[in-house]
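Field: sequence (string)
Field: structure_tokens (string)

Example rows 1 and 2, in order.
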Amino acid sequence: MRLSACLVSFALAALTAQTQAAEQSAERPCTIAGMNLGADPDFVKAVTPPGETAGANMARACKSVSQSDHQVDGATLRLILSDFFSDAESQIKMNVQMVEILRVEPSGPRSLGRIVLPPDPLDNAMRFEPQVVKQGNTILVRLSPRHGAIYALSDRGLAGLSAFGWREQIKVDPDLRNAGENLSIDLVRMEGRIAIMRDTSDKPASAFEQTDIGVAKLKLADRRFEVASSEVVKRRAGDDTIVDDAKTFEDELRVDAPKLPAGVEPCSMTAWSNDKDPAGLNVRAEPSAKAKVLGIVPPPRVMPKKYDAFGPEPVKAEFKIIGFRDGWFLIADIKAPGVPYDAPYPANLPKPYKGRGWVAGNKIGAAPAFTGLPFGRLYKAPHVEARHEMRTGGSDNPFARVLSCSGAWGQVEAEDGKRGWVRGLCANQVTTCS
């Protein structure tokens, strides 16, 4: 997060005398009065779904859910966590929260500021894990390990510091440094961590490659974090729960993976044929246009009107993808158009090949599957801790092309030409994949 964004992120505004009086009360009623949430980048990003206009959703109420007290420099700081709601009745909770920081004084708690806390950038879950420490003459507050700002306290209120502005100072190949997500900042240890990996959004890669961690020992200088020393270490189980959970999930998808020829990247997903040739898509014995043709994937078929769930668009043949090599996909379990949905397949139409074989990579399509990661993300590498960007179209729209695969991940091209990796591809043509 840029420093300017950090400064905006407080959503601090002049409060009315009535609101100030409420903030001095022991009850601490939650209020969003005086907060310009429409100008807060953390709030707007958190509540704006992919493809929708920014600012279309706004909070109408808030409700306190927990608080924590922290003793530092002879004073008590109280952090109150609240939920935002999109309705005045506080029934529809939003995936974004607020933290108010107060200094507890003899006359009562005094508010230093209110901060928007967005969901965790790795898994989109809400995560409130505060730290309050004193570094030199500065009291620092961290709200969550991967939140983009650290807050410096003074009698006048809060000042935002970029939590990860130091990452460019880690001495490592920029191609490895820039593709990984921010992993954590720990104010007690004054240590920051980022994921180290190569940007493979435009080329095939392997989800089985182990990622590393860039570890920086930090110092505070002139209200900013700098790297005192850094090193790159191998990732170990237990370093990051999110990454461990992802590995467990992806390993489960590969339990029944068949034995594959040497040099084939294992994959586990379903897809469909985009080939409109009425003769069907050739299935070959090897990943080569010169290899023997074993059979075909049937061409798309317009379904009879009684199958109105399919609509007017042709239904495509579906199959499992079990491997990838050199621009070719190894597929199996080919299903003729409509058959997975109990629609009879006419005997006079071309029959699908019964075994497994290779099909050209430029003939494959699929839709995103829900696998626990947020829809709409295109990752720079097949790892949950890779950086990502969002699709500009609908988050569950089919992809224009599937370019390669590895494990549970597919490298895709979206409708806007953007390329990246997604975890989970499926061939369901009737409902959203799950």
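Row 2 begins here:
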Amino acid sequence: MTLMRAATDNRVPGIDGDCGGNCACATCHVYVDAAWSDRAGVRTASEREMLNMVPELKDNSRLACQVTLDDNLNGMVVALPESQH
């Protein structure tokens, strides 16, 4: 399961996942807390391309659809860009 799917299944406001998790939009843009960035994995080339189009890109920006959840990410902290509030 991805972070985006968990968020949309639980109706987390601000994470829309308009493309259904296909890395074709940026409606699941999140900021991964620094303490979790190493465990959340690295950006794929497709993810980097999509993130280049977001207005509030940061070093810790990720698309939640590209973060696969596992036991190592239990308790992970993310924040939303201001534009998604």
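free_text_note (row 2): The first helix runs from residue 3 to 9.
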